[in-house]
Amino acid sequence: MIIIFLLIPLSIVVAAGFLLAFIWAVRSGQYDDTCTPAMRMLIEEKNSAGEISKTKIK
Amino acid sequence: MTETIASTQIAAPSARAKLACFHCGTLCRDDSFQREKKVFCCNGCKTVFELLTENGLTEFYQLSATAGVRVNASAQIDRFKFLDEPLVRERLVDFTNAKLTRVTFLIPSIHCIACVWLLENLFRLQPGIGQSQVNFPRKEVAIAVETERVKLSDVVTLLASLGYEPELKLSSLDAKPRSQLARRLWIQIGFAGFAFSNIMLFSISDYFGLDSFAGGNFRKITGVISLLLALPVVTFSAQDYWRAAWTSLKQRLLNIDVPIAAGVAAIFIQSCYEVFTSRGNGYFDSLCGLIFFLLCGKLFQQKTYDRLAFDRDYKSFFPLSVTRQTGRADLRVSPDARQRVPISQIEEQVSLSQIFVGDRLIVRNGELIPTDARLVEGPALIDYSFVTGESEPVEKKLDDYLYAGGRQMGGAIVIEMVKAVSQSYLTSLWNQGAFQKKHKHDLNRLTNTYSQRFTKIIIVIAVGAAAYWAWASPAIALKAFTSVLIVACPCALALAAPFALGTAQRVLARSGVFLKNPYILETLADVDAVVFDKTGTLTAAGAGNVVWLGEVLTETEERWLYSMTRHSTHPLAVRIGEAIKREHFPETVRSFLETAGCGMEASVAGNEIWMGSVTWLQSRLVHVTEKITNAGSGVYVAIGGKYRGCFELANALRANAENVVGTLALDCTVALLSGDNEREREIFSKIFGGKAQLHFNQSPQNKLGFIRKLQQTNKIVMMVGDGLNDAGALKQADVGVAVVENVSAFSPASDVILAAGMVARLDEVRAFARRSVRIVRTAFVISALYNLVGVGIAASGRLAPVVCAILMPLSSVSVVGFACLAAKWSGRKLNRPPAVIGLKISLVVAKKR
Which of B292, B380, B612, B771 is 20 to 30 A from B399 in CA distance terms? Predict the structure, then answer.
């Protein structure tokens, strides 16, 4: 049963990690606009500038 | 590589009509604009296509069938030069330093996924432009540019050349409120949810008495951990409740925040006491759950409609820039020497803050008169419908005084400023105290009246229980007291209104009724006087039937008249043109001449055609046989000097408007306030019934005064209006409803924004508001039942944490579930037919593009 005294802080640390991730997400504006990212996702990205420059480098 | 992609992609849209513009889909006149076997309606569209092809951005046309926006090509290159004025620039940008500038533009023509894609690929069209990000619901794009390489005017010119001209109004200069509040609420919820779930996890052993297996230390540790986890929740997440409770106590009010704060405080103190004295683990789980649910309710009720602004003032109505005739200095020296300068090419775009009294401004068709001015050149036909409510445009002669806010219809005119923008009639009207009045309404009135009684009862019970136990068994007295406060903490009660009314708000939004906040419904349900504006509210501007009186026109004649109307921007001509429009292409019109106030004449296919007012035709010795007697306007037509017939243009009532007024009149006082003349009094007195008050020729102050007088007779007044002339009345009324044809267009400050199609269903909206309030009341009863059970247990001094941990979420969830489902169910009828209305709105938007 002694193991629980190790597991409890461990679980809190993990949970706190998620909380921090959530705070970061909110701060970086991910909850400001929940509509456009859903549209952006549908756009094929193979044509975007990043990919083109990569193929050129190759 | 990009070339091959481009050519394969372009083969796709063969489904479109043969002569539809490849870019924007408009029917093309002929195939004079061609490129790569694609037809375009104008040079602007062709240019966009070329620009996109050259830069390998043809994917744009693949993403959506209706991707392209028609480009209103403007000849002036320097149209946006004023954006580089330091004063304008400084206030427009979000952020700037020597390297980088970030700016956000509102672009109403953003409408599909392809727009998002193209605007986020702007950097490929012009070097120096960095990342750009679209916020689709707000129809905004945030663009980063290199400060030295790219000027603001370059960015806007590029956007405009693509058909995405940003909306640049005077209000764009004001600081934009960013929603930091919403972010803070999210984080508060995050903390509360985190603590709630974790404490519950640690408390499971405590609930079932399993912690004895782990020894006494275990219980102590989980207790301390729970306390530590709950601390940020009580101090940070719940801080708004502390503050609100403190303010309402200072004002000697017992609103809902007081019992919430008292409950939270009681739980926290009791739990701390238990932990420190090793008596148990307290109720930290219930505490965090309570705050978590309350905050969720808060988030739910904070639903905002991004593209709608309920607090607009005249600044969002005025453009940011005007066209000024240059050579101003000379005119200033001798303002009376009125040399007739023709409307020349010598003009510049300047921001509104850069013009002064004495400047000469050029106002083109459809543009606004930015300030009080004197007409210097051109026949002016000014549409004041938005400012005064007059339905017909007014003709102005040279030297006439023009009030700000009018819209010029027809050719360009030149005006000379008489007053500074900040001192014009319209601006000074707006800045009057009466128009600035803020509502002092108690939001959430329903909950607060109920909670006043509730709080008093709870205090009586708590004190009673403590007194009883102090006499029977003093050890439990304190526990009984705090237990009552804990259980009675009105979480479910506080959630009922936000969720029921918030759901109702969403239901309404789907039908085109947008509420500033959900609590408007409470007032809406109590409304017992409804005041209507006429123009634009009960009548639709320019949507009336056009009827031809006289011998039926042949198809050829109809085509002649249609061709003629295309040359005029007079609203009546435009309406006739719309009505007799056919598939065929117009005839060539020769020697077209329009005489303001009279009519127009031209020669079409060798026939001399006159269209205009009856007196004008009579003065040309035409024998007119028909005369329009009832309300509406007539346009008389003579072909070859002979009377042919006339168009009757009815000033159309909105469909079903009379029924709505009739239904509302059953249990409300109804009234009509119009800025227009009395011409239509008869029609409206029939609709409104004999008893209703009908007032015509009303100034904005008259309207405001009328509302105030109604309120003094203890009426709860709803004002339904659309124009700037209603702005004061809308603010004064208990519920101000602004009617809009296009949801994203300008509307004066109001509580409700109503899509024009919903005017005819205003009675249903009110009935729905009443049902929603009834749902909230029912939810109160349900939560009271839970409290009754809980208080019964608590007063007996036997409140176990596990009971509390079950009862509290159960009551909250069931009340929230009931409130949402009931509101949705009661709004199902409202949502059914408006699918058509929704479509109409989008069509209007599409047309406006």
Answer: B612
Q: Which residues on chain A are in Cβ contact (under 8 Å) with B124?
A: 49
Q: A27: nearest CA in chain B?
A: B183
Cβ atoms of B370 and B361 closer than 8 Å? yes
CB within 8 Å: B186 and A31: yes
Q: Which residue is associated with the tokens 């009094």?
A: B681
Provide mean pLDDT across the span B465-484: 81
The one-letter amino acid at B213? F
Residue B198 with chain A: CB contacts under 8 Å:
11-12, 15
Please tell me which residue of chain A has the smallest CA distance to B58. Answer: A47
Q: Does A15 touch chain B (CB under 8 A)?
A: yes
Q: What is chain A's length?
A: 58
| The pLDDT of residue B188 is above 90 | yes
Q: Given an 8 Å threshold on Cβ–Cβ distance, is B137 in contact with A49? A: no
Cα nearest neighbour of A13 on chain B:
B198
Question: And the tokens for B263?
Answer: 């409950």
The Cα of B118 is separated from the nearest Cα of chain A by a number of Å equal to: 11
Query: In order of start, what are the domains of chain B with their CATH numbers?
Result: 2-63 (no CATH), 78-173 (3.30.70.100), 180-303+446-499+773-831 (no CATH), 320-366+371-423 (2.70.150.10), 500-539+655-770 (3.40.50.1000), 546-649 (3.40.1110.10)
Contacts of B134 in chain A (CB under 8 A): 36
- Tell whether A10 lies on the interface with B, counting CB pairs under 8 A: no
**CA B747, CA B813: separation in Å to the nearest integer?**
38
Neighbours of B620 (CB within 10 A): 14
Q: CA B503: distance to chain centroid? A: 19
SS3 at position B310: coil
A22 touches chain B (CB under 8 A): yes
User: What's the maximum distance between 2 C-alpha atoms anywhere in chain A?
Assistant: 61
Residue B676 pLDDT exceeds 60: yes
Cα–Cα distance between B687 and B662 in angstroms, integer?
7
Mean pLDDT in residue range B449-456: 82
* Shortest CA distance from B186: residue in chain A: A26
Cα–Cα distance for residue pair B185/B339, rounded to 1 Å: 63
Q: What is the mean pLDDT of residues A20-30?
A: 91
Mind listing the pLDDT tens digit for each residue in B74-96? 555 667 877 888 878 887 888 88
Structure tokens that stand for B745 in this block: 């267009």
Nearest alpha carbon to residue B521 among B690, B772, B819: B772
Partner residue facing B187 (CB), from A26, A32, A48: A26
Q: B237 to chain A: which residues are within 8 Å by CB?
A: none
Q: Any CB–CB contact under 8 A between B136 and chain A?
A: yes
Query: What ipTM describes this predicted complex?
Result: 0.82
User: In a 10 Å sphere around its CB, with 0-12 CB exposed, 13-18 middle and 19+ buried, how is residue B335 labelled?
Assistant: exposed
Query: Tell me: the pLDDT tens digits for B8-56?
Result: 333 334 434 457 777 777 776 666 777 777 777 777 777 778 878 877 7
Partner residue facing B198 (CB), from A15, A23, A48? A15
